[in-house]
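Protein: Membrane-binding protein
Species: Riemerella anatipestifer
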Amino acid sequence: MPKKGLAEVIHAAELMLSGLKAHQSELSSRGLDAAFIKTMEDLMKNLVQANNLQEKLKADLKTQTTKVEELMSNLQKTASEAKKRVKLDVQSSQWKAFGIEDKR
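Structure follows.
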């Protein structure tokens, strides 16, 4: 059986809360009293807040990942340019000091 999504869980909880409130007098003797309803409402509120934070963090992570990829690309281009210049201006016997393993 597939796992329910967040929207489904919240919708089901809202329906349950609506029913519990409408029939509170009949159900309170079974432990489904105002305190129980409040607990359920608080749980749902906390779930929504936690999900909103999670979505914000996901968006922030995507932004940060893009930034890291851009910086890495720029560093690779800069290092490649430096390697070209070193290979033109420095004798091949000294290339290892620059981390260049090429033979020519």
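Remarks: The radius of gyration is 30 Å.
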